[in-house]
Amino acid sequence: MNLTKTTRVIAALSALLAIATASLVGAEDTEKALLAKARTIFKALPDTVHVDDYPHSQARVDLGKALFFETRVSTDGRMSCAACHNPSYYGADSLALSVGVHGKKLPRNAPTVFNTPLLVAQHYGGNRVSVEEQALKALLSPLAYGNASYAEAEAKMRALGYETKFSAAFPNEANPVSAENWATAIGAFERTLLTPAPFDNYLKGDNNAISKQAKLGMEKFINMGCAGCHNGATVGGLSFQKFGITEDYWLATGSKEMELLKGRDKGKFHDTKKEEDTYIFKVPQLRNVAMTPPYFHDGSVAKLEDAVRVMARLQLGQKISDADVALIVAFLETLTGAVPTQFSSAPALPVAGFQNQN
Ligand code: HEC
Ligand code: HEC
Asked: What is the pTM of this model?
């Protein structure tokens, strides 16, 4: 009698165990399938992004770092790349709209400089092909550095005592202190600013690198269609798309007209003047997105949760539940890497008696 009872209990228990094991195996298969799917859409960050056009050397990186933090090449002595791409704010500036030389307001929000050499082009309108071209043109931008000519910027670099650093970075050149070399050196430094994150470890096979919530969020991100635009190693930044597919974007973001743009920001249109480029913007990368509010090209949306809601509504015509927003945000948080140490330590710059123009 007792024996039969025990047998029955054992039988029941092993049946339960079998079910549990089966569902465990099922769960494991589902997780494997999800990872396989993720790998077809996203990629881990590469170890380096050096290119043959701009040979890499430590001397160039060192010079580039100094120049990145150097304010005295700007006409008011206050602007540097780091003024708007600040280590304390994950390579951005935390403002809705950046403030440039002589206090001029820029029409756009500063994106992070991390991982940007991997993007299809630079700026929301894609009007700079590379980080090097971006750095070169910043010297003459009336909003950024305000120099009247490259010669003016080069003269300042010489007066500040940069000759030795340029010679080390560009040996065998007769005139190493040049605007082109400024750009190449800053580009060399930017090319070191990659931010591998827990998501990369997940893609490389560490299933515990990100939480269950984050995996569910990634699945939503894929299934809802976000990944149609935000994909690859930078989870975006690889294509241009219309902002506001289902309705005008400013109805959701509250974006204002801007004097400098003679109305609403029309994205790529301002660079190409082609009608079909109206409201076309570069899809931003989402690496470190949780650390770089406010959001969108004009910083019109303060919180990541709301940016996700705006995206679901404007790009996919969907109303998203709060629970799904939370899952997607949990996924986006796995894209946060550490601030590269070579970026967070300020360099000592050459000592010189600088006189700013006001
Ligand atoms: C006054 C603030 C300011 C200064 C100074 C500044 N930037 Fe920016 N940066 C911005 C803003 C705003 C944008 C976005 C412009 C756009 O999309 O039209 C931007 C865009 C960029 C981008 C493109 C990122 C992307 O995702 O498209 C890079 C790279 C960059 N800046 C690097 C630099 C470097 C290097 C310097 C110094 C040579 C510099 N910036 C100086 C504000 C600034
Ligand atoms: C059809 C293409 C497309 C789809 C689909 C799409 N996005 Fe975007 N996303 C964009 C573009 C373009 C921008 C830039 C808009 C701007 O600032 O002008 C953007 C911006 C963002 C931003 C702000 C980034 C920043 O740094 O300011 C976030 C966050 C974002 N998208 C998340 C999502 C999520 C989550 C989904 C799915 C619910 C999604 N996106 C679907 C194209 C798309």
From this structure: 0.94
